[in-house]
User: What shape does this take?
Amino acid sequence: MAELILIVDDEADLVGPLEFAFRREGFRTASAGTGAEALRRAAADPRPDLVLLDLMLPDMPGTEVFRRLRASPEGAAVPVIMLTARGEEIDRIIGFEMGADDYVVKPFSTRELVLRVRAVLRRVGAGGPAEAAGRLRRGPLELDLAGHRAWVAGEEVALTALEFRLLRTLAQRRGRVQSRERLLEDVWEMAPTVTTRTVDAHVRRLRKKLGPAADLIETVRGVGYRFADDPGGR
Assistant: This one.
């Protein structure tokens, strides 16, 4: 079934053309003009496969909608692309550090937005043929590479799409130091010249979620991060 895109924006003259463009490209669409309606739709069936979230909504900031979405079981792993008329670098940094999958500044090309949506959905479903039915185990950590699920000591951990990609990338490269610039390129697909603390913020949240497995992600001072080479003797 075609992916469902939830468009959260109160500008009807923008939402209409976006819905038309996405449907023409084979997607299904739903829309919400307020943050409260967006949260209701995100929790209802069918669940969206991706959310386009405007940060300027009439009832609450888009950042608050994002925070509540991420805190809910239904929306914790749903990829989100933030839409905003504000294009300063600090705004983009805040968006990425909150955990957004992408950030698009208005006005934008509808065609470019469709391509960005496809890129995010492709990353969420990434995993080569060799990994398609595989599981990766590192000490108390187990990853379902195809299902994008993670367990620590047998207990499932709810991760966002970005958090899962970050953890998978580190675990698959265990013992090898990954610079922040390399992770920005490989996980976020951002140019290495973008200087943000995005990676650090995500690693902090990831470690918190991993609990007893948090020490598997080691900090290499002044360089980046490394997944423990031989966790638990495995």
Notes: DSSP finds eight helices and twelve strands in the chain. Residues 4-124 form a domain with the Rossmann fold fold (CATH 3.40.50.2300).
